[in-house]
Amino acid sequence: MTNYLEVRDLSKRFGDFTALGNVSLDVTEGEFVCFLGPSGCGKTTLLRAIAGLDPQTSGTIRQKGRDVSALPPAQRDFGIVFQSYALFPNLTVADNVGYGLVSRRQARGAIAKRVEELLAMVGLPDSGPKYPAQLSGGQQQRVALARALATSPGLLLLDEPLSALDARVRLRLRHEIKALQRRLGVTTIMVTHDQEEALTMADRIVVMNHGAIEQVGSPQEIYRRPATAFVADFVGSMNFLAGTLETSERVKIGGLVFACPMQDGLVVGTKVRLSIRPEDVRVRDLPADVANRVPVEVAELDFVGAFCRASLKVRTDGDVALVADFSSNLIRDLGVDIGSRLDVALPPDRVRVYAA
Amino acid sequence: MSLAAPTPKTVLRISLSRDDLLMRVGLVALVGVLLLIVALPLWALLAKGFEDRDGRYVGLANYISYFSTPALFNSALNSFHVAAVCTVIVVPMSFLYAYALTRTVLPGKWLFQGISLIPIFAPSLLPGLALVYLFGNQGFFKGLIGGSIYGFDGIVIAQVFYCFPHATMIMVTALATADARLYEAADALGASKIRVFFTVTLPGAKYGLISAALVVFTLVITDFGIAKVIGGNFNVLATDVYKQVIGQQNFSMGAVVGMVLLAPAALAFLVDRLVQRKQVALLTARAVPLIPKPKFGRDLFFTAFCTLVSAGILAILGMAAWGSLIKYWPYNLSLTLANYEFANFDANGWESYFNSLRMAAGTAIIGTALMFVGAWLNEKTRGFGVIRGIVQLLAFLPMAVPGIVLGLGYIFFFNAPNNPLNFLYATIGILVINTVAHFYTVGHLTATTALKQIHPEFESVSASLKVPIWKTFGRVTAPICLPAILDIAIYLFVNAMTTVSSVIFLYAPDTKLASVAAVNIEEAGTTAAAAALCLVIVITSAAVKALHLLADRFLLGRLQAWRRR
User: Quick count: other Cβ atoms within 10 Å of Cβ B154?
Assistant: First the structure.
């Protein structure tokens, strides 16, 4: 597959502040990419630079082989949807959707037909004559999506499109947008600060922080193998245990020593952080010779619904604590309660080590 | 990818789209227009102050002679004195009136609100004329006052009438944005009513009070009509400019007095801008609106107060109306319409009224288009920061310039024989241009505020859809801003009907305006006909405003169905 979009060494500075620092990125044709990161990380700045709305300070952007770096938005090929819909309030839904078609001098009948098609596509077949104010937030965002797709752009840009909506509507629209994107095969970039949204919708996630890309990868890669402590912490929950790298495969934490995957990137003897996800902490059926066995006591048990989040204190070293997710079954079967003493294991293949 | 400062590369220059180019050309044209109608006339005025009667450069000689001529310098002191006294009277009065309108249960609130606005529709000389009838040398109540109404006292009373609505509108806005939660908290904490007033109410209205004080001060110090009619021998800056220019044909000294008049007005304007900048933060808080509950004693007091003030306003308007209908004051009080046959008092007759209508309509149409399109260009042009800053500055400048000063600048600039635009001199065109320039700031601000309230990404969306920006202006931006556009048009129309100060130097015999004709008629000693002409102006501007309110209610409701949910 060819690169549809190539971003090279893109920087954006506001005086002394660097909003984007030398960012490079490739997007494949037909791909759904999410820019994920906390507010102020530069994800929206990158999206707006790609659209040409707030041009970069330096760096190049090529779209479908064409250098668009210096082109104004009107000469680029994209459709855009904003968090706050940006529908024209004085035009009907049909006129909003047809807004970009009218200026292309198409026959009125053809435009009406296309608008109808688009409205059906986003699930609002009868809303054409209504005004935006008469629609719910979710419906308005569908109209905005139809309007952005009306001119069949090669690139669809979504700037936090679901953030202003209720939780339920957001979930449904997530699936609909993803399905629509797959059906149309339009290359899509979505900006979001919601990791769940990124994990469920994206083909690839670009995690950003402080104006730089921390990691690019599939949702599974991002979740399973976070490249940096920031990614590990930002996506999902994570235990971090401070210690020292004893050998390239062992980390010493307090009085305990943990086996970990081979670390070539880190210098032996330096301070490190060992991480494991709460759901990867093993409790049941531990073999006698299981690696990284830790005797713990349950200090707190928070009921979260489908499972309980347990705060565990290591019995041999009271300073070390970790969090584990226990299923309801497990709690019932093993009779776990506050004060229970049990052994858990941190499977070495689920453990990751980062420089402190 | 690191955050280390990247090696400096050639900074990207984005190429301009057709929209960008078009908008930039438009902005440059706007700067040109504003330079012509605002900045250059003021520059001409400034330069004139350094010339002698024959146009030779004399340095500060005019200024030195101004400040060493007690008769001239005294008027500056008089102006400050009158302005200060009026401010001290009007601000508390308008505060109480606005407090009654916003914080008490007042019967017939809309009526009281409407009456408080009446003076806006009148030329400033109207209260002066009414006072002449009431307390003048042959006045009804002349015996009630010790001395003569002509002079300080007359000016103050008339100015209070004239400034009252402006101050009240500001105070109503300031008091209407109260946060009920603050009062509930103060109540819960057991604060006394007096303490709540001084710790919650007054601080909340602080910026409004400062703003109102500055507006009243500026209005009084720059107004010409009242001092002209009822000032007698009490000279103020605005009348001095007129006397120097019209009476003595001493243009250089007129320019100097104009500059002296410009200073306090500009200063007050600057202070007001600084204060208002602070106020923004106060208003953004999410407040729960305060809905006043009935309270007998308080409501009775404020009803009585508002009735008294309204009676005063109606008395002055009514006196002018009655006076205009009387045959020969005070000897023959039978009613007549003879005073409305203006041809008997002024060569132009009713023609000056039609000139006013033409001028006001032209100002409203041309001014609204220029102000709205200008504000739009300034808000929506990408980049071009320096030029946009210049536009902003030029758009704010007129607010700081007294009308009589701007009018004088127009003489010097447009009447200069080497100015290719001097064909405009003595046409109705120059009156329109001058009035547009004089009232530019408020229109520009209204348009800018309206534009800031609509979604900032409409232009991004239309760019992505390849729709030219001017098409979005026509199909979306302008229709959404229609109420604001109408507001600007009405504001310009009413002000064009009533203004005296800026156009008094600029009319030709066949382009004389009604407000100017009223000044001339009064000068000739026919108070009744002057009052009649003022009344015609009041009725016209009030009627246009009423039409506006009706249109807002019914026509816009139909045109703007999309606003309903």
Answer: 26
